Amino acid sequence: MNNRIVLQSQPIIGTMKLAGETMPLHKFTSFVPTPDTEAQIDEIPLLAGQGVGLIHEVMSVAQIIDDQDHPGVEPAFS
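User: That's the sequence. What structure does it adopt?
Assistant: Structure tokens below.
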């Protein structure tokens, strides 16, 4: 079966503008959201890239500021 036919059989999760035209976004689409995209955020593809591999811990803003206020402590980001 053609991938386009399979994709079009999926439910519509939102819309986006492409080349000045509004087009429907089907579930499992490969289009990355743009500022003009209106969709269910948990259903659209969000690319992360290699930078995600550099994250070793999730810190609050308060923790990051506290770490910067203590000399001699290695900064969270370098």
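Helices lie at 3-8, 61-68.
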